[in-house]
Automatic annotation (TrEMBL):
InterPro entries: Tnp_DDE_dom (IPR025668). Pfam families: DDE_Tnp_1_6. This is ISCps6, transposase. Residues 7-107 form the Transposase DDE domain.
């Protein structure tokens, strides 16, 4: 089953619904149990959440490594929003900003001549 472009798996548990104490609040059907929908890759999100719960300092490291480049790119863009509209165009605009950021970082690290030599190879 597909819902909003995401492949869903439908779960039904007849026995759990039959004996549930809040069944009358959950479903109006007398015969049909409640059908639960879950994204087929939801287990990956659950595993990631479990890793974050087990090791909360991961988010601190992520903030230090990811937020800085994004903050720099946002600063370059100014306080304006994206110039383009629609997802495809905004994606292209963001890709150009990231490319410019990466090129500027590489020029800082390797120097312009070093970067040109690395590109030629």
């Amino acid at each position: 089953m597909t819902e909003r472009g995401l492949e869903q798996k439908v779960y039904v548990n007849f026995y759990a619904c039959r004996d549930c104490s809040v069944r009358d609040k959950c479903t109006k059907s007398l015969k049909e149990p409640r059908k639960m929908r879950r994204w087929v890759h939801e287990h990956e999100i659950d595993a990631m959440q479990q890793r974050l719960d087990d090791n909360p300092e991961i988010s601190v490291v992520r903030r230090q490594t990811v937020e800085h480049p994004l903050g720099t790119i946002k600063m370059w863009m100014g306080t304006t929003h994206f110039l383009m509209k629609r997802r495809k165009n905004v994606s292209i605009e963001m890709n150009l900003h990231v490319l410019a950021y990466n090129l500027k970082r590489m020029m800082t690290i390797m120097g312009t001549a070093g970067l040109m030599e690395a590109i030629r190879q």
